[in-house]
Known about the structure:
Chains A, B: GO terms for molecular function: hydroxymethylglutaryl-CoA lyase activity. The structure is a homodimer. The first copy, chain A, has a single domain (3-295), classed as TIM Barrel (Alpha-Beta Barrel), CATH 3.20.20.70. Chain A has twelve helices and eight strands. Chain A has helices spanning 16-20, 30-41, 65-71, 87-95, 109-116, 120-134, 159-171, 188-202, 218-226, 255-264, 273-287, 295-298, and strands at 11-14, 47-52, 79-84, 100-106, 140-146, 176-180, 207-210, 232-235. Chain A has an eight-stranded parallel beta barrel with strand order 1-2-3-4-5-6-7-8, surrounded by seven helices. In chain A, α4 (87-95) packs parallel to α6. The first copy, chain A, is globular and about 75 Å long.
Amino acid sequence: MSFEAFPERVYVQEVVTRDGLQIEPRFVPTADKIALIDALSETGVAKIEVTSFVSPKAVPNLADAAEVARAIKRRPGVTYVALVPNLHGAEAALEAGMDELNLVLSVSETHNLANMRMTPARSLEGFRAIASAARGTRATLNGSIATAFGCPFEGAQAPDKVLALAGAYLDAGLDSITLADTTGMANPRQVARLVAAFRARFGAVPLTLHFHNTRGMGLANVLAALGEGAERFDASLGGIGGCPFAPGATGNISTEDLVHMLDEMGVTTGVDLEKLVSLARGLPDLLGHDIPGQVAKAGRSADLHPAPAGLRAAS
Amino acid sequence: MSFEAFPERVYVQEVVTRDGLQIEPRFVPTADKIALIDALSETGVAKIEVTSFVSPKAVPNLADAAEVARAIKRRPGVTYVALVPNLHGAEAALEAGMDELNLVLSVSETHNLANMRMTPARSLEGFRAIASAARGTRATLNGSIATAFGCPFEGAQAPDKVLALAGAYLDAGLDSITLADTTGMANPRQVARLVAAFRARFGAVPLTLHFHNTRGMGLANVLAALGEGAERFDASLGGIGGCPFAPGATGNISTEDLVHMLDEMGVTTGVDLEKLVSLARGLPDLLGHDIPGQVAKAGRSADLHPAPAGLRAAS
Lengths: 315, 315
C-alpha cells in the first residue's frame, strides 16, 4: 500500500437505486427513481447500477425494473448496468438495452444458498448460459463475488477460493470482476492483500471494489485498495443500503463521502461533488429517514465558515 | 504509507468524558461520569482524558472537573489526563493529582482567538508559565495543536507552521505532542505527509493523532497515520463529540470502531473490545440520543450469525 501506487483517475460507480433501495422499508415511486438516475447521469459518475431484474416477489422495491430501465435518459459516456440473478433476468435486461449485466454469486456456499437458493457451482452454470445469451449483443458482463471479504454465516473466506472463483468467472466469459464486501466485514490489511493478489493473478482485468461501511471501515478500505492501484469503486448516494444483519448500521460507502475524500487527496474522479451533495440532501425526503453520509451534513472540508464577529484577544 | 511501517502496538487514548461530553446538550451527572471513567479504566485503554479544568461558564458540562478527578479510581498503568486552558486550570489539575496536563492552542490565529480569546503567541506564554508550575511535580505535559489539519475559518494550515509550533511547544518544556483535527478536515494523504514530516523533524518525541470523523474519513486517517508508524490515537467511546460547525455529523473517531479495526488487522492494543462495546451500548441512555459508532450497532466482523434454517438448493 502506498500513495505512489494511487491511480491517476478513479471511476465512481453509483449503486443507490439498486443496492441502496432494495431493502428500504418504503417503495420509492418509479418516477422518483427515474428522476434520481437522470440527475445522477449529470454528476459525472462512470457507471450507474440502475436496477435489478429480479423476481418482484423477492425484491418488491425493484418491481419496476423494466419501466425504469426503459425511461431513463442514457447519457453518452455513462455505463448503465442492471443486476441479474438468472437467465430470465438477463434476457429482460438485454431487451431493456442495458450496457452491462452484473452477475452475482457468493463465494460462501451458505450465503449463496440463503440468497440465491443455489449452490455456487449451479450459479456458475447460470453464468455460462447468460454469457451465451449475451454473445453478439453490445452488453458487457461483470461478475460480482459476494461475501469476498467474509460471510456473516461462515466468517472469513480463503483468498485462494475467491481468486479461483474469479478465474471461473473469466472462463465463463465474463469481462470484469467486482469483489464485494456484502455485509461490511473487510478490513484494510485484508483488502490490500486481496487486491494485490488479484492483480498478480489477473493483471489488467478490470476490478471493482464494493464496500459497505457497516463497521466504519468503508473509506479506510478504499484507501487500502487505492494503495494497491485499484481504480473502480461502487458507492451509494447518501451511504444508504444497510444490511439485514446490522440493524441501525450504515450501508454502502457514501458516494459523496468517497468523492470528497478523493477530491481532498487530489485524485481525479470527473464527478461534480456539489451536484452529488445536493442530490444526497434530497434523499431523506424521498426515503423518510436520515442518511448515514457525512459530507451531506458537514459540507466539504474546504467550505469555510465566517469567523465570529468582533474577534480580539481578551487582554 | 505501508503496512510494514505499522507499529506492533497501538496506544488507545479515551477522550469521551472530555471531548465527548463537552458539547453534549445534556449535563451528565457527576456520579455517571465517575462510573464511566472507572469502567473505562478496566478496558485496557492507555490514557483517559478525564475532564477539563476550564471555567464552568465556558463549559458547564465539565463544571464538576475537580470532583470527578478526585473521585475516580486510579488504575496503575493508566495515565489520567486533564485538559487545562490556562495556569489557573493547571494549578487545579495538579492539585487534583492528574498524571498529565494537556495544553492546547490552535495553530490558526482566528480559531485561537475564537476559542481561547488569545493570540497563539500569548497562549504559548501561558504554556511556559504552566511548565514552570509543573516543574518538580510528577505530572507530564502534553501539548495539543488544534486545527493542525485545517481551520473552519482559515482553511488549510501550512505544515511548516504546524511543525514550528510543535518545536515551540517542546522549547517551552512540553513532553509530547498531539496533532488534532479539531473539526474533521484532515484527509489521509495530508495525514501521512504531516506525520512523516513530524517524525523526520522530531524523531522519537511521542506523537498522538486526534481525529474526528466529521466527513467520514476518521479511520482512513488512522490507517494513513499507522502507515507512517504512528502509535497513539485519541478516540471517544461511541464516536460522540460532534463539532458545532457540522450539526448532525459524527464526532471524534469511535474508540470501539478504532479498536475493532486494529484487532481485525492484527495490531495489538491491549484493549478488551467486548467491554468497550458494552460501555458504548450504554451511552444512548446516558445521553438521550443515538451514537455514531458503528461496531456497537453491527457487532464485530467476527460475530457470526446462524444460517437460515432448512437451507437447500431450490432444484
